[in-house]
Amino acid sequence: MLTSCAPTVEVSTLNPQSVNQSVQVTGKVIAIAPMLNQVMYELEEKGQSIWILTRQTPPKLGTQVTVSGKVRFESIALDKAEIAHLYIEQ
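Above: the chain's sequence. Below: its structure in token form.
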């Protein structure tokens, strides 16, 4: 989809220390979640997945794509539990 000078990394190597780094990942689109004024889609690579947040039209399900963006982190508190997720903002 998008390419840049960002280093290509495997999804499995992304961790909280990756936050705010520009990266490029490749994977298969396995889910799409429309949101207000933006969309998230999930990429899977070698059994690992990561969500991509974009304002662009998402690729079709099953498509193999390469995406560039910044690693972001979201922490959500739900009923005394915290759910933490890394994602890529395109």
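Strands lie at 22-35, 38-45, 48-54, 64-78, 81-89.
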